C-alpha cells in the first residue's frame, strides 16, 4: 500500500476535511506548496486560494480563506476561517462580494457616513471573492 498522510482542514465552525491523501498542494504566501508523506515538520502561512489533494488517485479541490498549515507526523493541519468545496460555494454571494470589493476599491476612499474605507480589507475581500469563484469554476476537478 502506498504511503499516505492525513489532511485536516479546520475552521472555527467545523472540521471541513479529515481524510487520507497521497499529496496536498496549498496556497502558501510565497507560492503553492506541495506536501507528500514523510514531509519534514513545518508551519506555513496561507493566502486565500485553492487547496488540492489527491485521495486514491483522484484530485479534489477546495477553497481556503488563508490561515496557517502545520505539517507534522504525516498530518497536514490547515487552520482557516473558511474552507469550502466547489459545490458548497454560493456563486451569487461570491459575485456580490466581488462587486462590492471592486466598488470600494474604485470609488471614494470614504463611506457615505464620511468614515475611511479600509483599503487593505477591501483588497483582501476582493482576493477571497476571486478565489471562491475560481474554485467554484473548478467544480470538483
Structural summary, described in words:
The chain is elongated, with a radius of gyration of 17 Å. A hairpin with a 2-residue loop joins strand 6 (58-72) and strand 7 (75-79). The protein folds into two domains: 5-84, F0F1 ATP synthase delta/epsilon subunit, N-terminal (ATP Synthase, domain 1, Sandwich), CATH 2.60.15.10; 87-138, Single alpha-helices involved in coiled-coils or other helix-helix interfaces, CATH 1.20.5. Helix 1 runs antiparallel to helix 2 (119-138). The longest helix is centred in the last third of the chain and has 20 residues, at 119-138. The protein contains two helices and eight strands, in the order ββββββββαα. The chain is α+β, with helices and mostly antiparallel strands and 141 residues long. Strands 1, 2, 3, 4, 5, 6, 7 and 8 form an eight-stranded mixed β-sheet that branches.
Amino acid at each position: 500500500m502506498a504511503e499516505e498522510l492525513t489532511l485536516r482542514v479546520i475552521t472555527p465552525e467545523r472540521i471541513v476535511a479529515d481524510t487520507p491523501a497521497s499529496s496536498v498542494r496549498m496556497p502558501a504566501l510565497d507560492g503553492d506548496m506541495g506536501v507528500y508523506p514523510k514531509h519534514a515538520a513545518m508551519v506555513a502561512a496561507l493566502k486565500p486560494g485553492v487547496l488540492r489533494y489527491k485521495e486514491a488517485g483522484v484530485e479534489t479541490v477546495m477553497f481556503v480563506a488563508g490561515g496557517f498549515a502545520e505539517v507534522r507526523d504525516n498530518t497536514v493541519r490547515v487552520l482557516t476561517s473558511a474552507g469550502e468545496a466547489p459545490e458548497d460555494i454560493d456563486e451569487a454571494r461570491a459575485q456580490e462580494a466581488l462587486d462590492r470589493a471592486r466598488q470600494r476599491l474604485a470609488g471614494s476612499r470614504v463611506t457615505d457616513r464620511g468614515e475611511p474605507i479600509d483599503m487593505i480589507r477591501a483588497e483582501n475581500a476582493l482576493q477571497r471573492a476571486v478565489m471562491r469563484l475560481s474554485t467554484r469554476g473548478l467544480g470538483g476537478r
